[in-house]
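so my prof wants the structure for this chain in the C-alpha cells format not the other one, which i didnt know existed until like an hour ago. anyway here's the sequence
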Amino acid sequence: MRFRDRQEAGQLLAQALAFLKGEKDVIVLGIPRGGVVVAAEVAWAIGAPLEVYITRKIGAPYNPELAIGAIASSGDVVLDKALMTSLGVSPEYVQDETERQRREIERRLRKYRGNRPAQKLEGKTILLVDDGIATGATTLAAIRALKKQKPAELILAVPVGPPDTVARLREEVDKLVCLETPHLFWAVGAFYVVFDQTSDEEVVRLLQGSQGGTKRAIG
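here's what i got, hopefully its the right format
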C-alpha cells in the first residue's frame, strides 16, 4: 500500500486509533517534522491536544543518513555501540555530533513552541506519532526518554515500518499501531506518493491550529 500523502496516512491511522476518541488525558506527540502532519490528523480526529517531541538522528561519519544513535529533546541519548565499533567511530565524533544535534533540538523547540510551556506528561496517555520508521533509532530514543516522564500509557503509532523494527519497538511500549509492515522495505518515502519536505512553518501552523481545537489546513 502507498499513502497519497502524510495527511491521508494520518486519517487512516486515526481510524485505527478510534478507541482513543473521547478518552481523557490523551496527548498526541508528533515527531518533527513530517510526523507532525500525520499526528495533527490523528489529534483532530480523536479530539486530543497536539504537541511535538523532538528526536534527532546521530549520523555516521561520511554517511549522515546511517543512524549510529539518536538524542531526544530531554537530552537522553541512545547509541548503537555495535555499529559504532564496526565503523570505527570515535568518542570525540559522537560527542561533537550529539552536541550539534542538541543545539538543533533547542532551535526547533524555540521556533515551534515560542513561549508556550511543554505539556505535563506524567500520568497521561501518550500517543507518539511519526510518518514511518526505518531503523527505529530516533523512535527508540523518544520512547526511552518518554518513559522517564512516567506516563500512564505509552502508545506508538505509525503508518509504515519494517517488520523487524516494529517487533523490536513493540516490546518497548504499551501498545503499537502500525498500518503496514512490508517485508521489502528500503525507505519510508517509498510508501508515499507525495513525500515532500515539511517546513518549520508548517509545523508551527499545525501546532497553533491545534491550540484552538480546530483543524487548520497546511499551506
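also thought this was worth mentioning. The mean pLDDT is 91.
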